[in-house]
Design a protein that fits this description.
Distance between the termini: 27 Å
Largest sheet: none
Transmembrane segments: 47-64, 69-87, 99-122
Oligomer: single chain
Number of strands: 0
Organism: Kribbella orskensis
Protein name: DoxX-like protein
Strand content: under 5%
Keywords: Membrane, Transmembrane, Transmembrane helix
Number of domains: 1
Radius of gyration: 16 Å
Number of helices: 5
């Protein structure tokens, strides 16, 4: 469970730092991002900051492994990754079949991994009673 949270947090940290500090590079160098212009530095920097905010919550869940925190962090992750996966599944034209297939696998995993960790959290972490 902790390993899954760390992997998800690491992805968010890398994407968040890259997008926040080097938005033009993110736009130019990440396959498929430039398929839907125009480029907006403001939007990319905001997205980078929000991505880092999500990383903070997922890191906190990995540190404390409290059931509610883990579930809320992963639901927040899914609030991004699920619509992101749907968008990419519907927009696979524009590059090589290999890149499109790799992208589809990556975005599907970005949904399945959080669901898997939520399942583990529900089964393995004790339910906290409110007093």
């Amino acid at each position: 469970m902790r390993a899954g949270l760390i992997v998800l947090a690491a992805i968010q940290v890398v994407l968040g730092v890259w997008t926040l500090l080097f938005p033009a590079s993110f736009y130019d160098d990440v396959p498929t991002v430039d398929w839907t212009p125009p480029y907006s530095e403001h939007l990319f920097r905001d997205f980078g900051g929000a991505t880092l905010g999500l990383a903070v919550v997922v890191i906190a869940a990995a540190i404390w492994l409290e059931r509610r925190l883990v579930i809320v962090a992963l639901l927040a992750y899914l609030a991004f990754s699920f619509p992101h996966a749907i968008f990419h599944a519907e927009h696979l034209e524009g590059d090589s079949p290999a890149l499109s297939a790799g992208l589809l696998v990556a975005v599907v995993l970005s949904v399945l991994l959080p669901f898997g960790v939520i399942t583990l959290a529900v089964r393995a972490l004790p339910r906290r009673t409110v007093t």
